[in-house]
Predict the structure.
Amino acid sequence: MLKFKEWTDKNLQGDKLIWAIVFVLSMISILVVYSSVGTLAYLRSSSPEMLLFRHTTHVMIGLAAMWFAHKIDYRYYSKLSRFALLISLPLLLYTFLAGVEINGAGRWVNIFGLSFQPSDFASLALIVNLASMLSKRQQNIDDIKESLISIIF
């Protein structure tokens, strides 16, 4: 237990409560998926353990990606946010014109065999860009003309 505490102190900077909540919710999601996957496995003629293993793998990959993302300096994300916005605009337009329908929703794009929703990418890029713009204007945040109107445009 002492080694685990040393590892967390060394590698998990930031709010420990948020890290704990994310970890607990991830473990709860694994339990919920395992308890509800029986019918789906029966319909697909596969084993529930295989679906559980796939979900657990996705959760672990997500936790690892979150850990790597938190190790990168936040100013780097600020620089990437404009580029991400520029990429998201053509993706959204492509989705509108030639989006693929999956499970009754036509908001998907299939590129190189990978299906994703560009709206999720665009919303993340927009949030990061907005945070970057607000951090640059934090000294003048009380002046509506200088902060809010320029951000709206």
